[in-house]
Amino acid sequence: MAKKGNRVQVILECTEHKASGLSGTSRYITTKNKKNTPDRMELKKFNPIMRKMTVHKEIK
Questions:
Q1: Is 9 helix (H, G, I), strand (E, B) or coil?
Q2: What is the pLDDT of residue 2?
Q3: How far is CA 3 from CA 6, 7, 43, 53, in A?
Q4: Which among 31, 30, 28, 29 is positioned nearest to 6, based on CA atoms?
Q5: Which of 11, 14, 43, 59 has the greatest count of CB atoms below 10 A from its CB?
Q6: CA–CA separation, 40 and 58 (whole Å)
Q7: What are phi and psi of 42, to 5 degrees?
Q8: Interval 3-60: pLDDT, tens
Q9: Spatial CA neighbour of 42 closest among 25, 57, 59, 27
Q10: What DSSP string describes 10-48?
Q11: Is 33 within 8 Å of 6 (Cβ atoms)?
Q12: CA angle 4, 12, 28 (to 5 degrees)
């Protein structure tokens, strides 16, 4: 039987891109351990549409 763990998939979406009004979205899928990080993740990732590093926050 497979183990049931605390690791879940989360979607990260760019906050600066959303506020700028440009078309499209920059999203990344990653995993996190719910036990160690119960609050929403926030990482700096590359936004290919804006061509720079921006803050991406976890959605839903």
A1: strand
A2: 65
A3: 10, 11, 28, 36
A4: 31
A5: 14
A6: 6
A7: -145, 115
A8: 778 999 999 999 998 788 888 889 999 999 999 999 999 999 999 999 999 999 999 8
A9: 57
A10: EEEEEHHHHHHT-SS--EEEEEEETTT--S--EEEEEET
A11: yes
A12: 90
Paired tokens of 43: 């990482």
Q: Give residue for tokens 């926030």.
A: 42
Domains with residue ranges and CATH for the chain: 7-59 (2.20.28.120)
The predicted pLDDT at position 5 comes to 84
CB of 56 within 8 A of CB of 22?
no
At 29, which amino acid appears? I
Instruction: Say yes or no to pLDDT of 1 above 70.
Output: no
Residue 16 class from Cβ within 10 Å (0-12 exposed, 13-18 middle, 19+ buried)?
middle
